[in-house]
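okkk here we go again. third time trying to get the zinc ion bound version out, last two times i messed up the smiles copy paste (missing a bracket lol). double checked this time i swear
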Amino acid sequence: MSSINPTSGAWLSAGLSHPSFLLSPFEFTAAMCRRNTIHNTSIPTFNSHGTDNPQNYQCPCYGRNTMIDQIGYHLTGCKIDGGAIRLHDNVIHTIVTLFRSIGLSVALEPLNMFSDLEPDDNRRPDILIRNPYDGGNQIIIDVSVTSFNSSARTNDNKPEQVVITREKQKFGKYGEAAKKNHIRFCPASFSTTGEMGPIIKNLFLEQIRLKLQLVDGEVKRSKVRKIMNHCVRHISAAINRSASRNIFFKATKMVNLARHTQQNFSSSTSCDFTSSSASSSPDDLIQQFELQIMNQDVIQN
Ligand SMILES: [Zn+2]
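finally!!
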């Protein structure tokens, strides 16, 4: 279901050449389960025969209780605990790095973009390209990562529906203001499987071509394809790793909750001893985990 468009799953062919392409064993398992629609045994499930509390397996996002699926779809982009924001921010940072690598001057979350005409307008799009290679208007980009199976998807064979719908919504938000301020607006819409919206894809292609024309004097298709592949892989890897890490964080919390529930129901002291392995809180674990990743990055640089 996620394999029928050209950019999703690009992380699979990214190799190990860059530290951001590396996955921990848990992240790799989570990624594989999501991609192949198989149960991830690291995500705990409700045991109806024991003293388990079903609420530990539900998510209160969107104001209602959603049962958390064992494949990891819900945990990927869940808004609770900042998971969706982390995913969104990681994609923005990757795009900024990629545009900078082809020589563009890029600002992150520019201020006062629309205040020329309306001083109170303090909307902040995600990215500003100050010097696009066509020499035209400055470009603002707003990034969104949408679930591949959101309500906009009405046809199994049309995975692009979700990213195109989101592009339209973003035009509704920024299109008019951008036009009035003589800014070109490009929504950058992605699905949680790594599919890229046509507008951001074309912007990458256009800027790569113009850059090559400027530097080489000619545009070799093979070179464009090579640079584009590089960009697609980095974005896909960023989405995949953030999604897998979101699953890790939440699954860890769920495991601890389940242990805690069982611990409270148990009167036996020997049982307390075994469940004391869950003594570190989920937040401690997350911090330890981040530290580990940081150390790893430092070593690899
Ligand atoms: Zn949720």
